[in-house]
Design goal:
With about 725 residues, this protein is mainly beta. The protein contains seven helices and 42 strands. Among the domains are: about 260 residues, no CATH class; about 100 residues, Cytochrome Bc1 Complex, Chain D, domain 2. The strands form twelve sheets. The protein has a six-stranded mixed sheet with strand order 1-39-38-37-36-2, with no helix packed on it.
């Protein structure tokens, strides 16, 4: 039976938070909880702990009573805006992030505010949570804002001035580049290993961009303890997969999605993204290690133990989108500790955690090798023999929308102008090339869950088609030319963007001042990185073009008196990406047949699917009788010993749901005033289990206020029945 809960206030929604021993976003306990049958052991960090399994041993909420869940508390941050945060709960305190990236603490049983840490910097965009550390005496929260990571006293919310420089470290430092011209932010928390904080970062995806070094800092002092170069230096392994002087100018190969740690073995598993520039690789010929790789590093020293590269010489922005999960599977009667990594292009790879040996065979299949002049695509890419992909792989005429005859014919007409041949087809200038699943995945940043009781692995996926194409980069050094070089890859040549992920800039002057647009270009905003390498004249020329359409000259980079970083002579910006284009029908719905989003359960012992269900709805289509469409979804699942998978994530229906973890049957759902584009967490305080999620909205077509955390629990009388 399905029960729907609705809330009367648009500001009264709740976030699923993980607490002591629960599944997601849980940290070590500050003090012992009352001993109950469900009291879990301490678990560290974002993702439910260092292993990133998003599993909770809590079972107070189960299949028999989940329909009775009600709102236990809400916490209104007082800010309007999107959130992707998965909170961390330590004993009876929940730590989270506001839409403008203030860290806060509330009582995890009541939602009563305890403290807020304001760095003085107004952040925006993704900030998926804090990191927590304790040695049993001192307790610290590490909060990222802009290019900085701050150390905060977990009890008081006060900054710790002895950490780094005046209480913070600057991620732009120690990269071998001028820090003033770099853009590095931490969108997903790093991991804690003993007295080390290990982090990656989000970078610009066009050149110039900083290298994606993995770095470990001392949690007490903020001192840099080790660095792993994902773009190898001379003499380092993988150096021969890049041009000779690539380390001087190449960028990317960064870990923005989060990491996992095997604490017993002292191994950190680091997924990385593509090298810059994303779609044209003439200045980075070769496989480009360690881009698009899972890297196993000695957590104490940063020494490489093994790696696997999922996409060689990536030309499609196929970043690894989420942390790997450290799991245990059974083969031939024995248990094997493994690491499972989901990908944007819809595949799941599983490796022996120690050796890196694949647990399912991997084939290197041939793909089209034609590329733009100067570039050389790899003609083979790795594909696992099992499990089967969890997202569709090639758009054909048979998969075009049939929502109405008129929509179908429109989709056919558009499709005839595309190149659609499946995965790994390099982009060209003559016509759009289909990317299916789209640029966001497939799997995305919310992470996946693993149930040790059944060996089922849960991954939610988007199943939409996008297109992309290239153009000669011949516009010159003017406002329009700089826009096309730096901005059009996201906002498109026509400035229409891809709402709601990437906003339109048409009529931006009606919504933002000249100063606000200039600030966004310099410092970044939302998912957009900053461009600190551009001088004031260049920024002003871009703003003038965006706001008025006038194309004004800009001083040449590096001109006397300018701060702009001169382009490296080996950077080949001969071609540029014209923008992300989601394949939507004239009414704004995906132009492919459903499902447009799914939740999948895969048995990792066998590689077979246990179940697959559509995830998400469009309320207006439900009213027309189209209920099982699925929808885009961002944010991951949590699985519990109570037999449940909790997930929000869906963009348009604003719901959080509970599924039977064995069968996929929907057991409960509640409608929120804002979509919960974040991963839930579950925790226990004083014998009562809670589920919390950040209702931030941000991706819904209907919008929503956002800024509220909502927690659910059984009625207080129910917890005494067990």
């Amino acid at each position: 039976m399905t029960q729907t809960a609705s809330l009367s206030s648009a500001r009264s929604w709740l976030l699923l938070a993980c607490g002591l021993g629960a599944a997601t976003g849980v940290l070590v306990a500050e003090r012992p909880l009352p001993q109950t049958k469900t009291a879990p052991p301490p678990i560290w960090g974002y993702g439910g702990g260092p292993e990133q399994t998003r599993y909770s041993p809590l079972a107070q909420i189960d299949r028999t009573n989940v329909a009775r869940l009600e709102v236990a508390w809400t916490y209104d941050t007082g800010e309007i805006g999107a959130m992707q945060t998965q909170p961390v709960v330590v004993a009876d305190v929940l730590y989270g992030i506001t839409p403008t990236h203030k860290a806060f603490a509330v009582n995890a049983a009541t939602g009563v505010h305890l403290w807020t840490f304001d760095s003085g910097i107004r952040g925006s965009g993704a900030n998926r949570g804090v990191m927590y550390w304790t040695d049993g005496r001192e307790r610290r929260v590490f909060a990222a804002v802009s290019s900085f990571i701050y150390a905060v006293d977990a009890a008081t919310g006060k900054g710790i001035e002895s950490f780094g420089t005046a209480g913070r470290i600057d991620l732009r430092q120690n990269l071998g580049r001028d820090p003033r011209t770099q853009s590095v932010t931490l969108t997903t928390p790093g991991v804690i290993y003993k007295d080390l904080m290990i982090v990656g970062g989000r970078l610009s995806e066009s050149l110039p961009a900083p290298p994606g070094d993995i770095r470990a800092y001392d949690v007490r002092t903020g001192a840099l303890r080790w660095t792993f170069h994902t773009i190898p230096r001379a003499g380092e392994f993988g150096r021969d997969t890049w041009p000779n002087r690539a380390r001087e100018y190449a960028g990317g190969a960064n870990s923005w999605a989060g990491m996992a740690v095997d604490e017993r073995r002292g191994i950190v598993y680091v997924p990385t993204g593509s090298a810059a520039s994303d779609f044209y690789g003439a200045d980075r010929l070769g496989d480009n290690l360690f881009a698009n790789s899972l890297i196993a590093l000695d957590a104490a020293t940063g020494r490489r133990l093994w790696h696997f590269q999922f996409v060689r010489h990536d030309l499609w922005d196929r970043d690894l989108p989420s942390p790997p999960a450290l799991v245990t599977v059974r083969r031939d009667g024995r248990a094997i500790d493994a690491v499972a990594q989901a990908t944007k292009h819809g595949f799941l790879f599983v490796f022996d955690r120690v050796t890196g040996k694949p647990l399912f065979p991997i084939d290197y299949r041939k793909y089209p090798g034609d590329t733009l002049p100067g570039d050389i695509a790899r003609d083979t890419q790795p594909i696992p023999s099992r499990p089967a992909p969890f997202a569709r792989q090639e758009l054909t005429k048979e998969l075009l929308s049939n929502r109405s005859p008129e929509v179908h014919q429109w989709a056919v007409d558009r499709f005839m102008g595309f190149r659609s041949e499946g995965q790994f087809v390099p982009f060209g200038v003559d016509r759009p090339t289909v990317v299916f699943p789209g640029f966001d995945g497939g799997a995305e940043w919310g992470g996946q869950a693993f149930d040790p009781e059944t060996a089922l692995y849960y991954v939610n996926a988007n199943d939409l088609a996008w297109t992309g194409r290239m153009a000669p980069n011949t516009a010159g050094h003017s406002g329009r030319g700089l826009y096309l070089q730096h901005c059009a890859s996201c906002h498109r040549d026509d400035r229409l963007g891809t709402p709601p992920q990437i906003p339109s800039l048409v009529a931006i002057a009606d919504r933002r001042s000249f100063t606000e647009v200039a600030s966004a270009i310099r410092q970044g905003k939302g998912r957009m990185p900053g461009y600190p390498q551009l001088d004031a004249t260049a920024v002003n020329a871009i703003v003038q073009f965006v706001v008025t359409g006038l194309d004004t000259p800009a001083a040449e980079p590096g001109a006397e008196g300018r701060r702009s970083e001169p382009p490296h002579p080996l950077i080949k910006n001969s071609f540029r990406f014209t923008g992300y284009d989601k394949f939507l029908d004239p009414d704004g719905y995906p132009a492919v047949v459903p499902p447009w989003g799914t939740l999948n359960a895969i048995n990792l012992n066998t590689g077979e699917y246990a179940w697959k269900v559509p995830l998400g709805q469009y309320p207006e289509l439900v009213a027309q009788g189209l209920a099982e469409t699925g929808s885009e979804n961002y944010g991951g699942p949590v699985v519990t010993a109570g037999g449940l998978v909790f997930i929000a994530a869906t963009n348009h229906d604003r719901k959080i749901r509970a599924f039977d973890k064995t069968t996929g049957a929907l057991l409960w759902e509640a409608t929120m005033p804002s979509s919960g584009n974040a991963t839930p967490a579950t925790y226990e305080v004083d014998g009562r289990q809670y589920v919390v999620v950040a209702a931030g909205g941000g991706k819904s077509r209907q919008g929503g206020p956002g800024g509220v955390y909502v927690a659910f629990a059984l009625p207080a009388t129910d917890q005494h029945r067990r």
